[in-house]
């Protein structure tokens, strides 16, 4: 039987990193902080290396580096002989000279007040000599926040992404080159936002630096691969017009992409600079990592009835499962998970998933239907096992509901044009309700037993839905947005939220475009019972968003429950809180029975 404890205690691999020689994979595990190493070939079980996070390999593949709070560690791959260095390392990269580690960390700050103008928290590039333990801090980048670093294969030049400040909503990233041997720097100009996944790759005309960012001009839309040739320093979009979305880059010019309900590995062609598909991956994929020449890869994958595992092998396949961290889940009878294709009200092609109660088929309908919206909005539902509190499809199906997981426009997996199509609360909402009506028409969903829920942007859509119609008998708003203007002013991604909401509150007396798109503006219409859940320390969508909705529902006498989880951020992490949330989720949607 599927229990809350079974869900939250299932161990899942995170952050795999393949060794430069392609022989082994290091990875972390959640819940917990254990580092493991497993061979790419053979049947030997994984070996526990130690407690920590963020494993990375030395260039000679002899050592695994990893972090704990306030320390960086290096452990021989066979275990024993660990060395440790004290000091905060927000990010780090072992360099090809075998004795230097590039570290990004802030200056020590003993000041209690937070003084914005004094640049507290900015990370600086530092070079740790692992032989002596000495740290050298180059005076480069004019006090900017160092966000990411990548070394040219074979050693030498570093590419460094910087921001004006540590603010995640910073809209002024820049790209630099830095030579650790000479101290020389070169500016490569402003980047698209938000830049990340910095990688070197070699084309016919020499070395290039590439990164992933929102398709210019941004900040709303689909991801793109931006490429910078060192010969001219221009930033070029290599994925313009393509019907899929790049996720991450890695060695050998490899690109992991979201493609509909699945994923794929592509390679940047050194002649044409276009993406060439090498291997399709059914379901969801995370953290593509490759050996030094991009011939052998590892990736974490999940399919419809299989939890996330590490797979490894040749880049063109086949990839072989190398971890089995949650075998206890194989005893569970899952609900049938179906792929859906349908068209929006304007004819746009859409997809999604339908999960039925275990042992049931469409012929057993109509069922109570819970629609669960994904986050983002630039997220998606892939054809993976969806079980956790923020994606509880199988958890709710196990309680007798059918679950609809729509991928409305504005999301990931169908290219930039799809992601940039429409306005929050308008076209995306029409895509969701069109899918619900289709399931009712086909006899799968009972029209008088509908529920809706979601987290983050999915929470926004749930709050929006109940202000637009009284068709839903229960709703869950998890870490959701109720007021775009307030979120633009107080959320850590303020400029991006303003682009989605359409305006800032300081743009005159109003009414503003964000008022029309905010669920709080329609709170007086809500009649649906609403469960509001939020982390007390959420900086992405601050707690005030939930409090605003709670006070409005209290004012208008709407049945609701407001649950705040102390110490939690945007994601709920503590075991007891996750168990509580799973229980509350099932209990709340039993109103549909």
What does this protein look like?
- By secondary structure, the protein is mainly beta.
- Helix content is 15%, strand content 38%.
- The protein has 10 helices and 36 strands.
- It has an 8-stranded mixed sheet, sandwiched between helices. A 4-stranded antiparallel sheet has the order 1-2-3-4, with no helix packed on it. A 4-stranded antiparallel sheet has the order 5-6-7-8, with no helix packed on it.
- Helix 6 (484-490) packs antiparallel against helix 7.
- It is globular.
- The model has no long low-confidence stretch (mean pLDDT 95).
**Extended strand count:** 36
In angstroms, what is the radius of gyration? Answer: 24 Å
**Which class of secondary structure composition applies to the elements?**
mainly beta
Level of helix content? 10-25%
Unreliable residue stretches:
none
What best-fitting shape do the alpha-carbon axes yield? globular
| Ends apart, CA distance between termini | 21 Å
Name its key features.
single chain; 593 residues; mainly beta; eight-stranded mixed beta sheet; four-stranded antiparallel beta sheet; 38% strand; globular
Topology overview:
Layout: H1 4-9, E1 12-18, E2 24-30, E3 34-39, E4 47-51, E5 53-57, E6 63-68, E7 71-76, E8 83-86, E9 91-94, E10 100-106, E11 123-129, E12 135-136, E13 145-151, E14 158-163, E15 174-178, E16 185-190, E17 196-203, E18 206-214, E19 223-229, E20 235-237, E21 245-250, E22 254-259, E23 262-268, E24 275-281, E25 284-290, E26 296-303, E27 306-314, E28 320-321, E29 337-343, E30 349-355, E31 367-373, H2 393-397, E32 402-407, H3 416-419, H4 427-441, E33 445-455, H5 457-468, E34 472-478, H6 484-490, H7 494-501, H8 513-516, E35 530-535, H9 544-555, E36 560-565, H10 575-589
Parallel strand pairs: 31-32, 31-33, 33-34, 34-35, 35-36
Antiparallel strand pairs: 1-2, 2-3, 3-4, 5-6, 6-7, 7-8, 9-10, 10-11, 11-12, 13-14, 14-15, 15-16, 17-18, 18-19, 19-20, 21-22, 22-23, 23-24, 25-26, 26-27, 27-28, 29-30, 30-32
